[in-house]
Amino acid sequence: MRIVLLWGLAVFYLVTGLYIAAVPFVFYETGPGVSDTGPFNMHFLRDVGFAFLVSSLGIAYGLVLRLKPLIVFGTAWLAMHGLFHLILLIVHSNLASEAGLVDVGIVVLPAALVSYLAITYKETQHS
Hints:
Strand content: under 5%
Shape: globular
Mean pLDDT: 94
Distance between the termini: 12 Å
Helix content: over 70%
Number of strands: 0
Structural class: mainly alpha
Number of domains: 1
């Protein structure tokens, strides 16, 4: 089950990265709370999209090779990104708001789950 979840999250982050990198303005306009963070910046959004892509590919390649360090490394940016969002929600007292709950659901919790799965991954799980 852990492997299926890791693969699912890798695909989730791959699709997210492709979406942000390919159509940054659409993401900016339609992503919950994204336009509230400041003016549109195509370069920055594409950078974020590429970071999601690299993370997802690191996780997937680590799963194919059964290498825990590569999987963990693939989750590093995701964990930092999720933690950053959580800190902002707490500092700005937005945790219980509708936007805060959406942010927790689509940024913080998936990042926490994929990080936990990566850290507790054992190369022998595929057998």
